[in-house]
Amino acid sequence: MWAAGAANFSFAIVMYHKMLFFQIQKGKNFVKIQCGTKLDRLFFNSRKEPDMTRLYAFLKKSPLENNRKILIAALCLLVIAGMVPRIYGLIRLPHEFFHNDGNEYRDISEQLYKGNGFSVTSYRWYEAVPPDRTSDLHTDFSRPPLLPLLGAGLYFLPFDWTVSAKVTTVLLSVICILMTFLLGKEIFSSSTVGFLAAAIYTFYPYSIYHSLCWSSENLFLVFLCASYLFLCRCIRRSFAWKYAALCGAMLALAVLTRPQGIMLFLLFGLCGGIYFLRRKEARISVFRSAAAFGLAGLLVFLPWMIRNQRAAGIPSPLSFYGPYSFSQASSDVSYMTYRYVDTPEYKERTDLAWNTFHDEKVKLLGEKKIYSLVDANPYWKKWAWEYIRENPGKMAFIVWNRVRHCFRAAPNAAAVSNTIVICFRIYFVCFLALFLCGIWFARKNICAMLLLLSPASAVVLAVPFLMILRYRYPFFAPFASIFAAYGLCRLVQCFAERKRRALQTSLENSQTP
Questions:
Q1: Which domain holds residue 285?
Q2: Number of domains forming the structure of the chain
Q3: Strand partners, 138
Q4: Nearest to 463 by CA among 329, 262, 327
Q5: Which of 52, 84, 408, 444 could make an SS bond with 46 (beta carbons 3.0 to 4.6 A apart)?
Q6: Radius of gyration for the chain, computed over Cα atoms and rounded to the nearest angstrom
Q7: What is the pLDDT of residues 148-168, one digit of tens each?
């Protein structure tokens, strides 16, 4: 019944929005492959893609697909290899650990541990200082809560806090690698694609660098990947509400880690609304899932919203840093940043613009006796809009360069050597080529296409707000790695098939009398 090395194909057709799969059977193992579905055709006007079966037949030869022990061993070796540069960096570059807002997060964590609430012990560069203060301790409205809460928990451990934080950072890096593997495997139903995605992510330069810092990027990435994982399962299981609820909860946790994640809430809602309006027969399932998604997110947001209502009078699920970021992004600080980027004059020019901007604005806030960020936010927004109206040419220059910044390969050449810049650019040319190939080959897979919402939201947020490569990293790295892995698999498959056909033709010609 079973022919050695052969594959039997069967279709499973279900009503309207259920998935259509090919089953490739070999012994007791099979791989489910998403093919053309009505949901695909709604969004992408796709057709069935029978050649997908050839790819998965090709991948079935991989030991990662057939042997669970080999897969686990390979993942363990990958994690160990990935930890080498990260642990080395933590040891050799200890000053980088608190570089990206890490001291602020640690300060808030310490105050939470001491029972002082969500507060900080110093005034920041964008806050006016009350002249009659008796202490610098004051309520914080700038940072989201999840990383400070994680840091507060570390104070209960019987170890030095910095050591505990570095171990936590390493563990978060491991989870990021595993989440990339799980998401890649779920999207393309292949352990090989998932493993290659995890490998590409593991040695992605920015994933290594941001594993050396006590910052929120990796924690955000974990929750974001988890939300996509549950979203994919929700779609492939006829909009199962329990997976929709888990997706909403994970995405809400991501927003409570980095508020930029709120854009994905809107984009997910937009996609769900389009499907709800276009497919009458699926409206009940979609509505039930959307309700579960929204309620789960609201329940996660609720404690932080209550805190913000009591502390600031606004029941917002976000922090209150946005208006200041908008104002700084719409000022000569941003203009000088892009005017002199990659030049020797960069630091001098941007430092001058930075100091001038903040000295002027903070002085005005002090004169108006506005010492809370919440009270200052209307002024930050007012100053931003004034700059936009008075400097349309500069703003066009800023926005254009900020969007371009989203696709930048290397850090500022004024801060790193030319050798590093060249290496980064060579790496990203290869990476981008595989990424684009993966998008092209996966264009008929709706779950894969939904991954593009994440980098798209980063580009949209770059228009009004600040954009640095650190902000791009969690929105881009794991998802681009998944597409790059899939593109690599498809290219290898195409090359192998071409060689096989050439060999077959050669054999046929040699047998011809």
A1: 11-320+406-511
A2: 1
A3: 120
A4: 329
A5: 444
A6: 26
A7: 999 999 999 999 999 999 999
